[in-house]
Design goal:
Distance between the termini of chain A: 27 Å
Number of helices of chain A: 11
Number of helices of chain B: 13
CATH class of the largest domain in chain B: Alpha Beta
Largest sheet of chain B: 8 strands, mixed
Order of helices and strands of chain A: EEEHEEHEHHHEHEHEEHHHH
Strand order of the largest sheet of chain B: 6-7-8-3-9-10-12-11
Number of strands of chain A: 10
Shape of chain A: globular
CATH topology of the largest domain in chain B: Rossmann fold
Structural class of chain B: alpha/beta
Radius of gyration of chain A: 21 Å
CATH architecture of the largest domain in chain B: 3-Layer(aba) Sandwich
Helix content of chain A: 25-40%
Oligomer: heterodimer
Order of helices and strands of chain B: EEEHEEHEHHHHHEHEHEEHHHEEH
Radius of gyration of chain B: 21 Å
Distance between the termini of chain B: 34 Å
CATH superfamily of the largest domain in chain B: P-loop containing nucleotide triphosphate hydrolases
Strand content of chain B: 15-25%
Largest interface: A-B, 45 and 45 residues
């Protein structure tokens, strides 16, 4: 780890949504979607943020780029505190901070050509690319993301799903960002095409020095692309480590269960591992369990888990995990 | 003899862009008590094949101009036959349980309906049978949940309800179309575990339709891999995964990021999935294939046994020798 300050630094971030009663017509409570999340991403680094539906991982992304308002905590990006930044300055910052969405069908304007879609950002930020360079720059970008530059005049519906995701990537790159948030960016793609887009994201990081916040539910994809990984459950990070550490020595029971549940196309290649199948579903963030959020599905849960929220700390010089029994579980890991 | 036998099945759809051949001469068998995976990406024709078996190809856009489907020596394509067997003999579970359940009826009543309608059970009997089924598919506090509505269930629990309905009349063939695709990975593991257990208990045949090669490994006995409406490879699962004879199969295997071992660069399949309105001549996979030559453009390859492999392992490729030696 370098001593330089990270490109993105998130501290104790909390985001909540008001719960309204249709009968009383007023706010009756708060759904804590993100309940105190902290992480850093260095310039050029990739953090994989993993979790199932309802874990709050997408809300973290939406709060960082300002689509949701943080309730408390801090988000420092490239020296700017985003939670208190005036709107006018946010525009300057957002140039460096782009996002790629899951659904390439829904996130592209069907009535605009590819060139218009990509060049749109330069109308807001005219200093990035002068008008007379737009056409040439669009062609360069299309080439870079593996599309035919001659297709700049085409409309989104004339492309396949994988190609549309490449258009989304080209649009994100148009402003030469430092950090790109990929929210389930490859989840909707067929496996054969997904691998193409993963390789493209890999190349772009290497060639352009991009940093990624890579949000996904697919652990094997996250393992492939990330330097560090954070696992979220019910609005909290329950474990974080380097990619290598997390996948070879998971400490939190949830991470262990998650890894165990990933379908393996060649199960016979490995020594028989005991499959952990946890029961139940992710509890509703509107009504989370007391203490540790995972205790209702955890096979290690004891009395103390119902009272004390386990802190995300390093125990026994291992990596941080939010479990009272992390040291015990370290030995039992896979 | 096979329980289900599909021969040269062809399914066409009339679209605004022209006639699309969604299934183009597919043939396969499913034996009694066997678990078979029907694999393929979007547009491969795997779901339409299942619709044809169930007799639910959307009309009037879809039609079956040729081919045959026989189930237990009955002709499923003859008028009325599929409808008579649906639910009793052949049942299906879909990807999205919320749109398959009626939102305004209580879950217990919806499951019980199967018994009332097909078995002439009384309300009380149907309710008791529904409760038994809900317990069998692992719905906690089943007696309390009988009177809940579908929206009060989580995605995983709704899929359990669908499975309970499918199992109600003890079918001999269960077709599950992407049953876990919409679910979280921990819940997916639960549902696959449940399906495997029920298959063993009931001794029924199970057809698992999925795009995910990993989900069915260790579950299915045999795989049928489809591409652009055609069966391109079939055989025992481990045999097909380890000794892929079709470049599409080996390409899919190489596209999956590994969960352990070195993080090598992925080797994706080049190009885009096929446009069914504009398929290439000869082999549909040809534009994405490194082995393609003139023969592939002229002659559509048919399924045939692979050199030095088991007779049950077949691939539709002119150059399986190259695929087999390059990958392994």
């Amino acid at each position: 780890m370098s001593t330089e300050s990270p490109l993105l630094s998130v501290r104790d971030l909390q985001t909540s949504f008001p719960m309204r009663s249709p009968v009383l017509r007023r706010t009756v409570g708060q759904i804590q979607a993100v309940a105190g999340v902290s992480f850093d991403i260095p310039a050029g680094g990739t953090l994989g943020l993993v979790g199932e539906s309802g874990s709050g991982k997408s809300t973290v992304a939406r709060t960082i780029i300002g689509l949701e308002k943080a309730r408390s905590g801090s988000i420092v990006f490239d020296g700017d505190e985003l939670t208190s930044l005036p709107k006018a300055s946010m525009r300057r910052v957002r140039r460096q901070l782009q996002m790629i969405f899951q659904d390439p069908y829904a996130s592209l304007n069907p009535r605009a050509t590819v060139e218009q879609i990509i060049a749109e950002a330069w109308q807001i930020h005219p200093d990035v690319v002068p008008r007379n360079r737009h056409r040439a720059e669009v062609r360069d970008l299309l080439e870079r993301v593996g599309l035919n530059p001659d297709h700049a005049e085409r409309y989104p519906h004339q492309f396949s799903g994988g190609q549309r995701q490449r258009i989304g990537i080209a649009r994100a790159l148009a402003l030469r960002p430092k950090l790109v948030i990929c929210d389930e960016a490859v989840s909707a793609l067929d496996v054969s095409v997904q691998a193409q887009v993963i390789n493209l994201l890999d190349d772009l990081r290497r060639d352009l020095g991009l940093a990624y916040l890579f949000i996904a539910h697919d652990l094997s994809v996250v393992r492939h692309i990330s330097d560090r990984v954070a696992v979220m459950y019910l609005g909290r990070i329950v474990e974080t480590a380097s990619q290598d550490e997390l996948f070879t020595r998971p400490l939190h029971p949830y991470t262990q269960a998650l890894l165990s549940a990933v379908p393996d196309p060649k199960p016979w290649d490995k020594p028989a591992r005991e499959q952990i199948i946890i029961g139940g579903d992710v509890p509703s963030p509107a009504d989370p369990p007391s203490g540790c959020g995972f205790r209702t599905r955890c096979w290690k849960a004891e009395e103390t888990c119902a009272h004390d929220v386990p802190e995300l700390t390093t125990r026994l010089e291992l990596h941080p995990a939010a479990c009272h029994f992390a040291t015990e579980l370290a030995g039992a890991a896979r | 003899m096979a329980l289900l036998s599909v021969r040269d099945l062809r399914v066409e759809f009339a679209t605004s862009g022209g006639v699309v051949t969604a299934v183009d001469g597919a043939s396969f068998d499913v034996g009694a008590g066997e678990t078979v995976a029907l694999l393929g990406e979007s547009g491969s024709g795997k779901s339409v094949t299942a619709q044809a078996v169930m007799g639910i190809v959307p009309k009037p856009a879809g039609r079956i101009p040729s081919g045959s489907i026989s189930y237990d020596s009955k002709d499923l394509l003859a008028p009325g036959v599929a409808k008579g067997l649906r639910g009793r003999e052949i049942a299906m579970v879909f990807q999205d349980p919320l749109s398959s359940l009626n939102p305004v009826f209580r879950v217990g009543a919806q499951i019980g309906e199967m018994f009332r309608r097909h078995r002439g059970a009384s309300r009380r009997e149907a309710r008791a049978a529904a409760l038994d089924l809900m317990k069998r598919v692992g719905i906690p506090a089943a007696s309390k949940r009988l009177d809940d509505y579908p929206h009060q269930f989580s995605g995983g629990m709704r899929q359990r309800v669908m499975i309970a309905m499918a199992l109600a009349l003890s079918p001999r063939l269960l077709i599950a179309d992407e049953p876990t695709t919409a679910l979280d990975v921990t819940v997916q593991a639960q549902i696959m575990d449940l399906l495997t257990r029920l298959q063993a208990e009931e001794g029924m045949s199970l057809v698992l339709i999925t795009h995910d090669l990993g989900v069915v490994a260790g579950v299915a006995d045999r795989v049928i891999l489809m591409y652009a409406g055609r069966v391109v490879e079939t055989g025992p699962l481990r045999e097909v995964y380890e000794h892929s004879g079709h470049p599409y199969t080996s390409g899919l295997m190489a596209s999956i990021p590994a969960l352990e071992g070195p993080r090598d660069r992925l080797v994706p399949i080049q190009g885009s999935p096929p446009d069914l309105l504009d398929l290439p001549s000869g082999c549909s996979f040809r534009p994405r294939c490194q082995y393609a030559d003139e023969q592939c453009a002229e002659v559509e390859p048919v399924l045939r046994q692979l050199p030095d492999r088991a007779s049950t392992h077949q691939a539709a490729c002119h150059h399986p020798e190259g695929v087999l030696t390059d990958v392994h």
